[in-house]
6-phosphogluconate dehydrogenase NADP-binding domain-containing protein (Sphingobacterium hungaricum), 282 residues
Amino acid sequence: MNTIAIFYTDAIGENLARILIKNKYQVVTDPNLIAGQSASSFEGFGVLPMDINQIAKKADLVISMVSSDVIFDVVMQYLEASLKTKRPAQFVDMSCRSVEQARKLIALFEKSNVFFTNASLLRNAENLSDDVCIYFCGEHRHVFKKTIHDAFKFVYLGTEPLLATAFELCYSGFTKSLMASLFETAFVSNYYGITERLFSEFKSTMPGAFSDLEKSAINYQRDMKGKCQELQYYNSMLSSENIEHSIASATERIFNRIVDNRLFRKIESADATLVSLIKRLK
C-alpha cells in the first residue's frame, strides 16, 4: 500500500485525501502543518498523524495544498526533514497562486535532494469528485503519476515547471472575465429596472449557460475578496511578461468595485438565486 502525505488547510485538500483513502491508499499528515484543522477533522475519516521527519522517510509522495501564506514555511520544514534521509519523498505543490511563488519554490528545490512537481486542480471543493483531473508539469513526472495513477485523471502540460500554475491562472482569469461581463450587465439592467425580465430571457434562451452562471455567482459572493486576489496574481503574471491584459484589468476593477462598496452582502441560501444576487449590484 502506497503512503501519501497531504498537507492541507481547507476542504479541497480534505476531499482529495478522502478520494485517496477510498482508492486504498494510506494517507498521512503532520498535524503541525495543517493549521486550522483539528485532530478529529482528519483522523475521523482515516488520515493518520505522522511527524514530518517520518513522512520524509516513509511516504511515497508528499502533496502540499496549504494556504498561500504558509507555502514556504511548509516547504522549508520539509526540506529540512529531507536532509535526514537519503531518498526523501517527491514533493508535489498544489498551493501556488502566482508564478512568482512558483519560481521561488522551483529555486528552493533545485538546491535540494528532493524531486519537485508543480500541479493544480481547477475544481472547487464542492465539486471535487472521483473523476477529478490533476494538471501537472516538470521533469519528474513519472513517479508522481505512477504513484497515484488509479485515483485520478492526469494531464501533463510539459517539462517547464511553471506551467501548472500558469494554466490554473489562465483558467481562473477567463472564467472571472465571464462573470465580470455578467456583473457589468447587471449594473446596466438594474439602472433601467429591467433585471428580472432580462435574466428571465437569458434563462429561456440559454438555460445551460444560465444554470452554470447561477452556481458560479453564488459561489463568488461568498469569497469576492479571494477572487480579487486571484485576479491580482493573474494580472501580475500578464504584466510581468508584457502580455495584453486589458480584459483582466477591467475584470479586476469590477470585482474591486463590488468588494469596496459591499455590493454582495451575505444572503441566506434560500434566497441565493442569481437574480436576487444580481439585483444588489448598483
